[in-house]
Amino acid sequence: MHRKLLIITSLFFFLTANYAMAQQKPLLLWYDKPAKIWEETLPLGNGKLGMTPDGGVDKENIVLNNITLWSGGKQDANNYEAYKSLPKIRQLILEGKNDEAQELVNRNFVCKGQGSGGANWGKYQTLGNLQLEYEYPGVKETKPEAYKRTLSLDQAVAVTEFTLNGVKYKREYFCSFDDDVAVIRITSDQPKKLNCNISINRPEKATLASQGNELLMFGQLDNGTDGKGMKYMSRVSTTLKDGTVTSQGNILKIKDATEVIIYVAAETDFIHSDFESNVKNILQAAKKKAFATELVNHRANFGKLFNRLKINLGEGEAAKLPTDVRLERFYKDYKNDVSLSALFFQFGRYLSISSTRVGLLPPNLQGLWANQINTPWNGDYHLDVNVQMNHFAIEPANLSELNLPLAELVRNLTANGAKTAKAYYNADGWIAHVITNVWGFTEPGESASWGASNAGSGWLCSNLWDHFAYSRDLKYLKSIYPILKGSAAFYQSALVKDPKTGWLVTSPSVSPENSFYLPNGKTASISMGPTIDNQIVRELFNNVITAAKLLKVDAAFSASLQEKLKSIPPVGVISKDGRIQEWLEDYKETDPQHRHISHLYGVYPAGLITPTSTPELAEAAKKTLEVRGDDGPSWSIAYKQIFWARLQDGNRAFKLFREILKPTLRTDINYGAGGGVYPNMLSAGPPFQIDGNFGATAAIAEMLIQSHDGFIELLPAVPDAWKTFGEIKGLKARGNFTVDMNWKNGKITSYKIASALPQKVKVKINGKLTTITSVKLYN
């Protein structure tokens, strides 16, 4: 009877929910003053181009980006003699001489050359700065009235507007999802009031020129060998209503205009050798189109992705305040701002859509927004949590195709990864260690303490598998199967037997970036069989076995993996103090509050440890998190939020969410406590590192829906702060199910689970597990 009533209620709800969602207020970040630092600017992007305007009144700086702009170049940094040291390294580890093993790794088992510290490695770099200097004839002192700066998440448009001397000025900015240009439209409500100088610059490797009334900036970055690295070209052009534009040197001078539209196009030769003509053609095509048409098309194309999911948690009084003020108050006064959680979740989705696209690159440590030549940690791809975290939210947040650029990045690692597997381990398959770049680097990093991790390639395969688990796309599975198989083949041939336990383990390896005390009082990072490796191998082998069965291939290889699984260490070993051991031996860690929590990989993303299937290990995971604490860099706080959500403690997860929303202006390099967000809601390690945004977005999704334990559970970790009311439309669950739901007082009142074809699915609702038939999904 209860189930029938819930279904009837669901029908009523979905007749009214669409109307309620349609009435939802626009999703806005807004501020009442210009940005003083870059971390206050508003991020715009279309997956290739990015810009961050500061909204200055007299002078405005707009940082420009192109996601493919990298210095460095391809290299072979494999040490092809490294495998000769492998037996000795493993023997030293078996003898408990991990410190000596680490010294040998540093001598003979790291990459050749400077690794990530060298020019050959490269960096993701800023494209440059578009600078606008405004003149207001007759105005002695620029004191604007009614100043407002906004970013519309559902429109992907930023606006700066103010009144000065009785004239209303408005600037609209967007990176077009139509013609692949960055667009700035400047207007005044009185005729011929716009006067400004436009220039473009870059700190290095840039030639400036003008061609007619267009500005050009082009150059070639350093590849670390002969200096002839990636080439780039950018062009700036304008159209005017009223007034004149003239070129004086490398400046465009606008006089007495009523409307100015600025177009910026930028390309590199990373993909297209004819990039220079592409830039010219893109710019010409955009200028031929009416601004209104460009904007409508941009919104429509962006909306095809963004509008798949809507969320409403209600609205508190604080929602009326500027975003930076809301952030300052949220930690203590979160009850008055329930909608900030939904805004931050949608901001994460917005950032994903804006920072990657099919056919290009996945978001790096900076997403695609960088204001420096020397970006922190090179703005590269870290493989021991960071690039993976950048993609944690993509599937549940209904942005599935945005996982494909990562799949292609990984595909491009396999050739060099096979060389690395042979050079260091004399093993089959392929491996990538801790860091990579757009040039396909797979070698160990330059220091044993962090660079020798075996986990990178296996963890990447988990992300690739997730796209299949959610989409059930067999064509995609067939495409990635060689990647998964190659990774499994590496581990299968590289594992060695631990004589104490008989288990098959990796050696040498590290638990990412952490270290431990040896009985002799010395410290080391190098070990055999760190817990994360054991969990990754177990997950990967099972996924490959499943894939081979679905694709009806490799029965013998699957059988060999199945046999090896019998000797893989258990998902987790509980130490004497009740925590999950981080290493095969119960070592004492040097930093109990270390930022990485790698040994809980089995909790997330793997789903090997759950409160339902492994309750004792779940309790041990909680104790592990208690000791680690709640602070750290932003990505670490976000990861802990995810763990607590998976362990179904919604209030603790929400506490972590409050921690990550603590505002900061710090930009120093931080490895410990002090993470948070900047006024523009980008996550602060510090410095800016986008994985905290994406990790917290994934955590919110896990608080609302989970589907990793053999069934779909609605509101598995809803915190008290969100219980009063909520409605969400368009979440995704594994098996390619689309989920809508409504709740009051923490209880589901109505729901809909849809799929391409109706099928039976297990669902846990309000604590009760039941089997239903999904409804047909209509696009």
Task: Please give a structural write-up.
- This protein is α+β, with helices and mostly antiparallel strands and 779 residues long.
- Among the domains are: 32-70 and 124-307, Distorted Sandwich (Beta-galactosidase, Chain A, domain 5); 380-618, Glycosyltransferase (Alpha/alpha barrel).
- It has 19 helices and 34 strands.
- Strands 1-6-7-8-9-16-13-12-11 form a nine-stranded antiparallel sheet. It has a seven-stranded antiparallel sheet with strand order 2-3-4-5-10-15-14. A five-stranded mixed sheet has the order 17-29-30-31-34.
- The two termini are 31 Å apart.
- Helices, by number, come to 19
Question: How far is it from the N-terminal to the C-terminal residue, by CA?
Answer: 31 Å
**Proportion of residues in helical segments:** 25-40%
Question: Per CATH, what is the topology of the domain at 380-618?
Answer: Glycosyltransferase
**Mass-distribution shape:** globular
Gyration radius, in Å: 27 Å
Please describe the biggest sheet, giving its number of strands, its sense, and whether it closes into a barrel.
Answer: 9 strands, antiparallel
What CATH architecture label of the domain at 380-618 applies?
Answer: Alpha/alpha barrel
The CATH class of the domain at 380-618 is identified as Mainly Alpha
What percent strand?
A: 15-25%
Mean pLDDT score: 96
| Number of DSSP E strands | 34
- Spatial order of the strands in the main sheet? 1-6-7-8-9-16-13-12-11
